[in-house]
Every structure is written in structure tokens, then in C-alpha cells.
Amino acid sequence: MFQSHSRLCRGNGGRYFCRLVLQNRQQQQQQRLNVARSETSRFCSPVLHTQPYSLLLGLQKADALSHSISLLSCRSDGARRLTSSSSSPSMKNTVNLKRWIQPFVLKCHPDMAEQQGLPKTGQKVNLKAVQSLNSYIDGVQQYLKTNKYPFSSDSVVEIEFVMAFTRGNSSAAVPSTTSSATNSTSATISSGQPITTSRRKVELSVPPPSFTAQQTIRHVRQQIVKLLKIASLTVPNSLAAAIEDDKYDATVPQDHLLHDQQRQRPLTPWEASRQRFWQRVEWKKFDAAYQAALQDAQAHLLTRNKIRNTPVLRQRLLAKILSNISFSEHVIPLERLVAYRRLLRLLDENFDALHLEDFGTFWEDQMTLVVTEARPYNTSSSAMRKRRQRHLETGYSFTIHHNNLVTVSIPIDFTDSELMQELARNIIDFVEWTTSASDDNDILMGNNQEGIFQ
């Protein structure tokens, strides 16, 4: 039928085809209605037989009701899955907690005691510590799987162990004061190298029975981290990342956590790292630094080029810089006068290139120019270029003193291009150092009243 009317459909804009489709649907509905009449006439009353449309409507409502019930059941199942962690700590895929205690087990294993030079008493203590730790982890994993609490309420598991350190190890010299008892003795390895043995005891608290599965795992993570740190061992990267995630979850509201549980896929490594990054940001310090930078930028824009464009301020700055010039005793007065005029013209013409306004404090208060006698060798451009290639004396020197003041020595027979090259090559490093040293000194002395460290 569709092929026979394809031309008509294209010619009349598809109207005839749509009409045929509607007629076909009406015929199918009529056939279904007749089947419903024939089926209900056997079992139903005459009233239902005379009202087939109401019967069909009732069947449709029944189907819709059953569909709604199925949806509600699916939603309730999903809700039970989402809230199962709040009602029961059982989990199908239990986290493998033993992989996080591997550093401690490897360190305290009896087979490693001989290599560490531990006595037999230390071997027995470490063996008991490994057994107690394994029983603690096994009990937690059994609780997560079967929902049967294996511990007594408000109980702790004592892990007592003996660790061997070399005398130069700083970690052994710092005893723990939280929940460990330390008794240090001396021993000797078979090779004769002296070591220090530290006997420590850590009390691991068991998770309360009221904890959910996630809360139980977080509690055990914290206990394992405490044990590893008391034992001066490195925390695995996976455990450290899990602790960071726990810190993030502790600061997120519960509605956000429920939204995270409803996600159909786990977080990608990039998303997880981004969440940890936002958690590590110190927003108060960031806001303070942002406001300080904004105010500094506004002040800079308002006063930019003010000294350069104001003749009085410009002459005052140049006069202050020239007042810091000193001469060696071998420079005669006439040469001094010529040097003054040359330096004044050089600074005035290169006002922007030398950043006299931006580094005004440095030029005025922290730098001194010392003009020395003329150089006794050939000072032509080619000769000076060869001297620089051979790393010979050029007559210029930059000195920073203990009080962060800078002295620049230049010869009396300097050239403008030569002096500009030396200043451009060296002055920026001295400016950066003196500025940072001044800021650090203000912070240490408590003079930074409006900084971000308040």
C-alpha cells in the first residue's frame, strides 16, 4: 500500500499518505475492540458486554496503574540501594584494607628482624603486632560483608612493636605523644653498625556499630594512617588520596553527598583531583591577596607616569639619584663635573628604559654610583668586546652589602651604550632581591599590618 501511493504522497505533500495511515490505525483499533468484545462476552456480565469502551478504558487504567506500581517499586529499590549504607554497613565490593598495611607488615615481619638486627624478644613482639593488626582488619572486613559486629563496644586494639632505626635517622629521635609509649634501647647489627630500637605501642579504636559502611572505612583509614605515622613509615599514595577525599566529603553538605551517590558513573581521576584541589585552596588568604593586588593595580593606574609627565617631580627624582653619586680620589673636579652632566643626560633620556619611576625607591635609597678613575687599557668597542669574551676586567662592578644596599662602580671614561648594557644586564636582579628581602623583613618584624599573613 505504501509503494502504490508513493507518487501521490510526494505530489500532494504527504496528505493522502497520512490519511491512509490514520485509516489503517482506526481499523486496527476496531479489530482490537472486537477481540475484546468477544473475549469479555464469555466471562463478563451483559452490562460489560454492552459497554466495551468503558471496559477497554478500565483495562488501560489498570495497565497504567500496574506500570506506575512497577516504577514505584524500581524507585524504592533504587532508594534502598542509595540508603543501604545508612541502614546497614554491608557492602558487596568490600575495600581491600590489607593493601594499606603492607608497609607495616613488611617492616615488622619476623623474617625482616634478622636483617634489622632485632633481638628475639623484638621478633616475638613484632609477630604479635602483625597478628593483632591482621585480626583487626579481618574483623572490619567481616563486619562490612556480613553486618555482624565482631568487636566489643568501646574496645581498642593494642599494637605494640619494635622498630629499628639508624642513629642518624631523625624520625626515630622524635617520639610520638598521642597514643604511643616509646622505650628506646641500643642494639648492634651483625655487621657492627650501631642502630637504635624503639619500642612503641599504638591503640587503634574499633569503629562503632552505629557507623555506616563509608564511615567505618573512613575510621579505619584514619587508624591505619596513625599507625604508619607512629611507626615512621611512608603512607601509600592511594591511602593519602583516600584521606583527602574523606576530608572533602566531611565539608560537603549531605544533599551534595546524596547527589554524588546518585551518579551513574564514578568520578574520573581528573574530577577527583579537581575536587581535592578546591579543598586545599585557602580562600581567606586568596581573597586577601586578591584585594591587595586589586588595590595596588588601581593605585598604579592612577599614578602611572605621574613622575615622568610632571617636570618638577622628574627633576626632583633625577636630583636625588645624582646626589648618591660619589667619586674616587683620583678623579679631578673637572672630570666630576663632566660626569655629572653626562649621567644626568643619560638618566633623563633613558627614563623609561631604566624604569626610574617603577624602581624609584631602589634608585633613590638603595643604590649608590661610584665613579672611579679611567681605565689604563684600550677601551675601544672591539677591544672591550674581546675583553668580555676572555672574561677580563671591564671596569664595572656591582656589589650588594649586608644591609641590601647596592654599590655600582663605573669608570670615568664610560660610554653611554656600554653603561646601558651593564645596567640592563645586572640591575633587574638586584632590584628583585632587595624588594623581596624588604618584604620578608617586614613580615618577620611584624610591620606588614595589611598583608595576607594577619
Automatic annotation (TrEMBL):
Annotated region (Disordered), positions in chain: 172-201
Biased composition (Low complexity): 172-191
Protein name from the UniProt record: DUF4460 domain-containing protein
